Every structure is written in structure tokens, then in C-alpha cells.
């Protein structure tokens, strides 16, 4: 069996272990400590724009706290991009609120500004103004932030940016994760940088970030005994994980560079196969970290996305279909949806290729030669 080529696997730099060892040596083995503070500072200074950051146990936890802080309650409606990982939408359900799903547009595969506007107007007519808008930057590609922010501002609905896949991406020179009233990041094992598991909440509103730290540590009131006047959560990041994060922040620019070069490599290699299409940045305003390199497989080429996926799987190469839209998921079957089927088409034809920053040239060539031979065999 050939060596396994993963979709996106952890890639440690030089200093992660040093920071973890430092945590051991100083006995800061807890969900607080100097690395947690340091990692928050590293993230805030990387993102710029005067943001504050709370390091948390996961991106999902960060999104949950964002909705709580924005006052989302049972029965409220929250707009969410349909094409995404379920973690973008699950926290809406944690609050007993109702997700309203919005389709993608073709250029970025992210939330369609047109259907966002249609959804807001229709929900208002039906009697409820949505409490928040969750926009996602899929695979690192920036959503159309100018249009989305203008619509959100017009209707005075706060935007929560799900930048879990987009650390290192920017729109018009501004880092993703700094546009929304609040934003979330993820450091799960397959993301562009990882802390093994973890996330962060980002906002320019310092009070909200302070509140998220309070809620993430069981909402303890200021008293010598344990006193609580609000429901709390155990969502803080461990000082060990934050140590890994500090090391990963030192190599983030290189990770972005390598992932972008994977994308260019695939694009060049498949230039001769018309049936394989790439998702280019729509203009110079968009800068993607290329967390995952994705392709659209056109049926005219005689191959489906599944043919390719199964063929590569036989050679021990991991690929994955694009995210299945939330409005097609059994758990959200009853949720309202506004769209024209764009995300469904993308899901049917789209595939994520191996994209790790630790892929070797040999790995990349193996993916390419397997795919090319598949297309050659289809023609005979
Ligand atoms: C990974 C991911 C999350 C969740 O992050 P976790 O840290 O795994 O909880 C949320 N949204 C999107 C789009 C993601 O890809």
C-alpha cells in the first residue's frame, strides 16, 4: 500500500514543543496561564484592527458564546450560510433558536448577498427580524464582505464571521476575522494552524471579549466562594494547547504560502483537463489562505466527483466532497431556506484535494499522476 496522503494534517514548526515543555516546567497545566495570554496577544496583533481575542476550547464554543453575547434566545431566528460545516449552525440550535439558511453565490461559494437581502426582508414580513447573520469564508475564500456588511448595517443586524477556515486570508487588505461584530477562529487538527483542538472569539468590543472569558469559565461572580448569577460554560483553552498555538503563530505566514502554492501547482497541472475547474479569487480584493484546494468536476469530462474520489481512495489518497449544505441535512430539514440551488450544485460536483502544508512534491505529483491517468483511461 502506498503511503497515505491526507487531506489536511497537522504540521508542527520548530518551537511548539518548547512552549509545551515550558508549560510543564512551570506547572501551568490548566485552562489558564501565560501561554493562553500570550496566544491571545499573538492573534490580536496578527489580525490587527484593534481586535481583542479570547482563546477557547473550540471554534464551536466560540460561536456559541458569540450568539449568547448577542442575546440570541429560544425562538429567535439567526441567518446562516447554508454551505458550511455543521459547526457553523449547531450553536443556533444550542440556544433553541431557528436557523434561516441562505444559499451561496458562484464567485466565492459563500453567502449570496442577494439571497441574504431577500431572506431578511421576508423574515421581517413574516414577523421576526433575524438576531444575527453568520457568514462563512469557506476553504479560506473571503465572502463578498462589502455587500454583506452593507446589507447587515442597513437592517442593523450584527454579523458573526465564521473564519474557522480563513486565518491568514484577507479582503481588501484587511484580515478576515476583523469584519464582523464578532468572529470565530478554529485550531482543530485539520485547520491551517492547530492547537490539537481549540478556537478563539475575536471582537473590537473589549467588553464582549471580557464577557466571553467570564462565561467560558463557569460565570463565577466576584466572591471568595463560588457564586453564580448566570449559566456558565467550560470553554476556556488549556495552557498546553495555547503553547502549541504560540509556536504555530510563528509559522503561520509560511503555512499560508505553502497552501497557496499547492493550489497553484494543482491548477497548472490540470490546465489541460477542461472538465476540472478551479475557484479563482474573483479579483485582487480577495486573498485566500487556500486552506483546502478545491475543484469542480464537470460531467462533460466523463468522470464524476465520486469517480475521482473513489479512484484516489484506492491509492490511499484522501479527498472529500465539498460541505453538504445545511438546508439538505436531516437535522435542519424544517429550517427556512433562501436560494436557487447554487450550493447544491457545488456540493454535487466539488471535491477537496489533499492540501496540507506538509505535502511533499512527491505527494503532489502522485495526486496529479493518479488523476491524469484516470482521465486518460476514460478517453479510451
Ligand atoms: C472547523 C470549523 C468550525 C468549528 O471549529 P471547531 O474548532 O472544530 O469547533 C466551524 N466552522 C467551520 C466553517 C469550520 O470549518
TrEMBL record:
The keyword Transferase applies. Keywords: Aminotransferase, Pyridoxal phosphate, Transferase. The active site is at 191 (proton acceptor). GO terms for molecular function: GDP-4-dehydro-6-deoxy-D-mannose-4-aminotransferase activity; pyridoxal phosphate binding. It is an enzyme of class 2 (transferase). It catalyses: GDP-alpha-D-perosamine + 2-oxoglutarate = GDP-4-dehydro-alpha-D-rhamnose + L-glutamate. It comes from the Bacteria. Belongs to the DegT/DnrJ/EryC1 family. This is GDP-perosamine synthase.
